[in-house]
Write a structure and sequence with these properties.
9 strands, GMP Synthetase, Chain A, domain 3, Rossmann fold, 59% helix, five-stranded parallel beta sheet, alpha/beta, globular
């Protein structure tokens, strides 16, 4: 295999760019102790888009700890800069001059556009800054070896541990910002929050399986990721596997097609914690449900923790096999309600603080009055941040009004379903016959479902009131208008109505694709 050894000046350029990015990712203590003192000294390009990078350290202690705790972030940065799959070897040997601390800051500011757009190459300014930095360093010899007391300081150890936890979380697929500290708690989700904390403190012992369900944007995924992140903080060696129901389905289908189910079983049945988001996706898929049933049994026998989320409870998954439904219901099932205006305001303020934005409470209330889900709040915050940071605009009522106008435009439903589809979906959701739903009987359960069907026909399909009445035994338009107004009023106060309509919309959205 042909190997091309990279010239020294190019190695220095690549390492300078890597340091500029690592300085942003890591704490200053970790960066100064483990990165600045251990440079890249050799780089060889091989065939098939591979390369071998050599990082030299003054002592075996440095080399061992660098490989153990910081291998992942270093590799990710070198892979991005070189455009190759880098294998890294850590050796003890002589090190070339290090770039002084001020050199990193200069380079970082010079290549800031590249940090945002990885496709851009380093320009001449970076090269000149780099050369100047090395020249200055040779003259001043300002870099000194770290002191032993600094290496083992409590702050250093905590920073290194936290960095490693975040690297592991990212590798697993968890969002590092989804923690219990960033989760806003209110009466609608306090039980789910308490159960999630208990599970993360005693995985496999408290509430196994834990089944969280609710509509879109209520915080199910946030709690699931928080469980994983909290377990890693207590035990970095814990085997945690996170995936969505769709990913689980795709993996088992591919494994069956390729006759490689052994690898699939080994992956999913040898884990300490299994986190599956949107488990409802496996309903109706017999082979997938069969495999998950055996995986579930294997993990519970090993006392491995299982956490599942869904948009509906197991009893409403009509295509879920009974033996899986019974196992889901044997654990702790918690319904997370739609967030109130107060909770959404709290969520907004928490996420704003995480983005270094100070949004006044009165403006937060204006935003949540227009934005109906916690998930959309993230989009609004990103828009505010871009206006503040990139355009230098102050956070004002005018800016909020401008962003809300663009983020929440008035638009009609995109559902491509027929009136009969809506009626059938509502009937199925409430386990009613369509003839009864459209008929004249006025039993309370029928009336609520009938009103919801009328509301959806008006708001999602924009049907005329008279036409809607014809679908329900020829009722006049005033009856339909009363039903629509009744549901609009109930949506503001009735959590069950909000959840039911959200779930019905999800089903209709899936059917319209």
């Amino acid at each position: 295999m042909q190997v091309i050894e990279v010239q020294e000046n190019q190695i220095k350029e690549i390492w300078a760019r890597a340091c500029a990015q690592l300085e942003i990712q890591l704490s200053s203590a970790v960066f100064n102790t483990w990165i600045a003192a251990n440079p890249l000294t050799k780089l060889e390009y091989g065939e098939e888009n591979t390369c071998l990078a050599t990082i030299s350290s003054p002592t075996a202690f440095h080399s061992t700890n660098l490989k153990k705790n910081l291998h992942i972030p270093i590799k990710q940065v070198l892979d991005k800069i070189t455009g190759k799959n880098c294998d890294i070897q850590y050796i003890v040997g002589s090190t070339s001059p290090n770039i002084p601390q001020q050199g990193f800051s200069t380079i970082r500011s010079s290549i800031q556009p590249e940090l945002q757009q990885t496709e851009l190459s380093v320009n001449q300014t970076v090269n000149s800054v780099f050369n100047q930095s090395f020249s200055t360093d040779k003259q001043t010899n300002s870099t000194q070896s770290p002191r032993v007391e600094d290496l083992f300081s409590q702050n250093n150890l905590i920073s290194a541990s936290e960095d490693r936890v975040q690297a592991i979380s990212k590798r697993i697929g968890l969002r590092t910002d989804f923690t219990f500290q960033t989760y806003a708690v209110s009466p609608t989700n306090e039980m789910a929050h308490a159960a999630a904390r208990a599970v993360s403190d005693r995985p496999g012992v408290a509430y196994n399986p834990l089944f969280l369900y609710g509509g879109v944007g209520v915080g199910k995924t946030h709690l699931m990721h928080a469980i994983g992140n909290n377990i890693l903080r207590s035990n970095q060696d814990a085997k945690i596997l996170y995936c969505t129901g769709e990913e689980f389905t795709n993996e088992i289908v591919q494994a069956i097609q390729r006759k490689q189910t052994g690898g699939f079983k080994s992956k999913y049945r040898n884990t300490n914690v299994l986190l599956i988001d949107d488990i409802q996706f496996i309903a109706g898929k017999e082979a997938v449900q069969e495999e998950f049933f055996h995986t579930f049994n294997a993990l519970t026998q090993m006392q491995s923790q299982i956490v599942l989320t869904s948009d509906r409870p197991p009893r409403d998954m009509t295509l879920l096999v009974d033996r899986l439904r019974s196992r889901f219901e044997a654990g702790l099932m918690i319904d997370i309600g739609q967030p109130s205006d107060e909770l959404r305001a709290a969520i907004l303020l928490v996420k704003a603080r995480a983005a270094n934005l100070l949004i006044p409470t009165d403006l937060a209330r204006i935003i949540v009055s227009k934005v109906d889900s916690a998930r959309k709040i993230e989009g609004v915050i990103k828009s505010i941040r871009s206006e503040v940071e990139l355009k230098g605009k102050p956070i004002s009522p005018e800016l909020i009004a401008q962003i809300l106008a663009s983020e929440t435009p008035e638009k009609k439903s995109l559902l491509r379903v027929s009136p009969s589809d809506v009626i059938k979906t509502v009937a199925d959701h409430y386990k009613l016959k369509q003839t009864a739903l459209k008929g004249q009987r006025r039993v309370k359960s029928l009336v609520i479902a009938r009103h919801i069907a009328m509301f959806l026909l008006k708001n999602e399909l924009d049907l005329p009131l008279v036409e809607i009445g014809r679908w329900f035994s020829g009722r006049d338009h005033t009856s339909v208008l009363h039903a629509v107004k009744k549901i609009e009023k109930d949506l503001a106060t009735d959590e069950i109505i909000r959840r039911d309509i959200a779930n019905i919309r999800l089903t209709l959205t899936a059917a319209s694709k």
